[in-house]
Amino acid sequence: MSKAIDDPVIISVPADYIQEGKIRAAIASSSNDYCSIAMKSFPIPNLGDCTLETLMHLSDDMAKMDGTLRSLLEKIAKTYHDMSLDGSNAKLTINGQSLSQLLEDFHWDETRFPVKSALNEHKNTIQQDMKHGENEMKKMIQKYQDVHSNVIALKRKRGTNILTTPLSLLLKEEEVMKNTGMTLKQVFVETEYLQTVVLILSSSQEKEFLAKYKNLGCDEEDEVVKVVPESCRRLLVDGDGYTLYSVVVLKKYLKKIQEACRENRYTLRVYEGGENSAKKEEDEVVLAENEAKEKKVKSDLLQWCRPNYAELASEWVHLKCLRVYTESLLRYGLHTTLYTFILFPKVKVVAKLQKGLETLFAGLGGSVDAYGAMKDDNLVISAVAGSESTSYTYACVSVERLSA
């Protein structure tokens, strides 16, 4: 009856075969309570007849479309969910209704699917909308992935490792001001004789460094100080346990200080302003522009998902109607007046429900002569056409639940 045993199922039988009251009594009485929601009539209008060959082609085509359209709806729902993890967006609905609510109160959309139109026209309408939705979804996701990749690449280029990232990208004016009380321009002194350098060390080396940095590059008998006293500034600490300090050194002794840093396992880096600062600003602007574009593309995609999910889900339910209608004509013959209803099975009693329905509609299984000229070939025709209800004596189509 259904891919998940408790999925709703639309069932169609000849209207003159059994009274509606008997169906209701069989599935919902004091001794038989098989459904979580009371049985609902599922009004499908008379959509006309067509040739047997056309019906078989329609049945086969629509069975394939069903799975494709459901996959598209699931993809839209997953995309919407994954991009709404901050909880800022409400759950997807079908014009304000859940799938279950839509099925409980279903009305054929005469505006979208005029009763006078042929079955094949209805199928083509849904197929065209489905393909358009697939193409639009593909384009929008690709657009988002492209701009998202750009943002990731720019952030990677900017880097996050204090040992390798350009200092012009690491050192933020606000953070340096907060930690030192000085601007970058004030921290990084450069004259004919003096230059500010950056030393990177692990947090475990800090105490030792602060005690000896003034003597970096000095021999025991050396009376010339290579590092300006009290010039040490703690600029920042990164998440990997490294600390970044600045010190002012005498330019002529820079090479000697570099050797001393290597011996003490400090990393010495030279900060260069000018073009690097301009490049930093340019990179930050480009990143900000791409982040804004990513946000806009994401917003557009989420906005696209809401109405298109609703429209395609509604068409998916109409496709289910077309399938059960076509299956009914194949089973019961042309010109048959149908009674269609929907059931919402309870998980634990599905087997009993199926048995009850088989008993109730047992006469439809092989005695279909009264309902059309196809006679005993009906079940074979249904099987050839790819019907999912060939195991039953009645026409039925499952409505799988959608994640939203």
From TrEMBL:
Belongs to the V-ATPase C subunit family. GO terms for cellular component: vacuolar proton-transporting V-type ATPase, V1 domain. Subunit of the V1 complex of vacuolar(H+)-ATPase (V-ATPase), a multisubunit enzyme composed of a peripheral complex (V1) that hydrolyzes ATP and a membrane integral complex (V0) that translocates protons. V-ATPase is responsible for acidifying and maintaining the pH of intracellular compartments and in some cell types, is targeted to the plasma membrane, where it is responsible for acidifying the extracellular environment. Subunit C is necessary for the assembly of the catalytic sector of the enzyme and is likely to have a specific function in its catalytic activity. Keywords: Coiled coil, Hydrogen ion transport, Ion transport, Transport. This is V-type proton ATPase subunit C. One of its GO terms (molecular function) is proton-transporting ATPase activity, rotational mechanism. V-ATPase is a heteromultimeric enzyme composed of a peripheral catalytic V1 complex (components A to H) attached to an integral membrane V0 proton pore complex. It comes from the Eukaryota. It holds the Pfam family V-ATPase_C. Residues 271-298 form a coiled coil.
